[in-house]
Amino acid sequence: MVFYFTSNVVSPSVTLFMGADKHENEDLIKWGWPEDVWFHVDKVSSAHVYLRLAPGQTIDDIPNSVLDDACQLVKANSIMGNKMNDIDIVYTMWSNLKKTPSMEVGQVAFHRDKDVRKVKVAKRSNEIVNRLQKTKKEAFPDLRQERENRDRSEREDKKKLLREKKEKEKEEEKRKKEEQELRSYATLMRTENMSTNYDGNDSDEFM
């Protein structure tokens, strides 16, 4: 089961989601998207909260208000973290999550520590948490199928762009060839005109 929450502090609104337990967290780790941003309470057990970026967005584009929502949600879903003040929330792109066979279910590390960011959360905001809880929905998505559909769509888009690029290159080549032919024709016409205007009489005598 996956829980979905709507963050309506921006327009259009964005969706935050998390697994119901460590087993769902494992599936989210395995079938995450390159556009997903992962949130967790630093050094304390907590839910794995995700934010899926829109196409073209980067982790730097996350609005502060959405960042606050994600941090409050992950803090509220940590037994220890929910009771603590001044805690750190870490977040990074899904692609930076590292999973090895020796790790426990739901446990992750990072490929590059320098790509992990931290946000200090002073205390729980009941206003934010209650607003998000009112939007909570439960679902049983086929995470593998969703990822495969996403990858298929990406491949099709890349093929389309490649076809369009080749068509433009072909049109450009045709245009250059036509220009070259026109220049050659113009040169030929000038040469013919010069030949026609010459009568072959070199005499300086006039009658």
From TrEMBL:
- Region described as Disordered: spans on this chain: 139-207
In the record, the note on similarity to other proteins reads:
Belongs to the CCDC25 family.
Q: Which organism is it from?
A: Papilio xuthus (Asian swallowtail butterfly)
Please list the residue ranges annotated as the NFACT RNA-binding domain: 1-111
**Under what name is this protein listed?**
Coiled-coil domain-containing protein 25
Q: Where is the composition biased (Polar residues)?
A: 190-200
- Offer one Pfam family short name for this entry: NFACT-R_1
The residue ranges flagged as biased composition, category Basic and acidic residues, are 139-182
Q: Known InterPro entries for this protein? A: Jlp2/Ccd25, NFACT_RNA-bd
Subunit composition? Interacts (via cytoplasmic region) with ILK.
Using the record, list the residue span of the signal peptide; answer none if the entry has no such feature: none
